Amino acid sequence: MKTIQRQEYLDWLISWREKQIIKVVSGVRRCGKSTMFDIYRDYLMKSGVTDDQIISVNFEDIEYENLTDYKALYNYIKGLLVPDKMNYIFLDEIQHCTSFEKAVDSLFIKKNCDVYITGSNSYFMSGELATLLSGRYVELKMLPLSFKEFVSGLDGKQDGLSRSEKFDLYIEYGSFPYILSYDRFGKEAKDYLRGIYNTIILNDIVKRLKISDVSALESVTKYMLHNIGNKTSATKIANTLKSAGKSVDQKTVDKYLDGLSDALLLYQASRYNIKGRQYLTTQSKYYVVDIGLRTLLVRGKESDAGHILENIIYLELKRRGYDVYVGEIDNGEVDFVTVESGNLTYYQVAATVLDEATLKRELAPLKKIADNYPKYLLTLDEVFANANYDGVIKINALDWLLK
Fold it and tell me: How far is CA 171 from CA 28, 168, 207, 305, 330, in A?
């Protein structure tokens, strides 16, 4: 399997190299965090760092089972430190070490220790990390492969496919890097995806939140996957499930949504009032971290194409470092508003706008916006792919994803 360099993430690690702050790499299970450390270690070796200056512990390897106590971990690393040189310390899946923050803090204060840690357990995502390492860390939030990375990782296996056909593969099998190791996409790749889903549900949510009714959690999960890109609330979910014979109350739904978000299976996009420049706290939308998981669990229809594209665009905007919101203006909605240093950009997403009525509907909210910030319409249309509608720039979504 070809190693995908993921240059933006590598550049982030390089930019923080040897700065006295803990580098935390977070992300959903199997999104490539450990491989990212391998890539970074290769970079360090090529830049003159010697092998004995690099100390790596992966707590998913039984070889390090004796280091799951923070004192044992600290003493082990301390015994390997090279004096008078910078030591690069990589601690993978650190949540398996009890009171790990004590060992990390003790290493962090040493002038010759550059500390990097990862964790995929929801323990890392629930705000507890901020409490444990307050003010002493920076965080790289990793996602699975972008469409551009997915295409580069196909590595000749799908010669002859058009980019639209490659996009169909991306939707069908998803963006987890290991998917690309299969010579042929098919049942084995689907089984791998199902294994990731089961591990997230059972280890990162059920075990952590002590959930006894797993079937109710799965009902909420499938409802959310089916309704990506739709406004929702815990009350609406509870009522819908109740009408389908599943008795789940609002508080329980809220708990499950928090668990799904903490485990990074779902991402919440809050609403933003464009005219009032206000952030809103109700009727959020949710998007799934990997569209292949959604395809596996909720077989969509052709009518889902717009929401699937919307989900992929949302994740790409997150990858590019933006804060992303759902825009609201009068009675209209703009799919995404990105905020960066006070500057806004607006995105409307649709599978196709070749029908004149659809085009008019998609442009209407954007035309209500009085400011001069950029406005884009992203579609899968190959004809009239690049057009300008009174300042709204239409772009082919695959062009945009691959640039």
Answer: 18, 5, 30, 10, 33
C-alpha to C-alpha distance for 349 and 140, rounded to whole angstroms: 27
Query: Per DSSP, what are the bridge partners of residue 115?
Result: 89
pLDDT band at 88 (very low <50, low <70, confident <90, very high): very high
Window from 70-79, 118-127, 199-208, 261-270 with minimum mean pLDDT: 118-127
d(CA 23, CA 45): 19
The amino acid present at 117, given as its one-letter code, is I
pLDDT digits (tens, 9 = 90+) for 158-186: 778 999 999 999 999 999 999 999 978 89
Residue 377 burial class via C-beta count within 10 angstroms: exposed 0-12, middle 13-18, buried 19 and up: buried
The answer to whether 107 and 77 have CB atoms below 8 angstroms apart is yes
- In this prediction, residues 309-316 reach a mean pLDDT of 98
> 197-206, 300-309, 390-399: which has the minimum mean pLDDT?
300-309
The pTM for the full model equals: 0.94
Question: What span, in angstroms and rounded, lies between the C-alpha atoms of 180 and 35?
Answer: 14
How far is CA 55 from each of CA 23, 37, 289, 354, 370, rounded to the nearest angstrom? 15, 12, 31, 56, 55
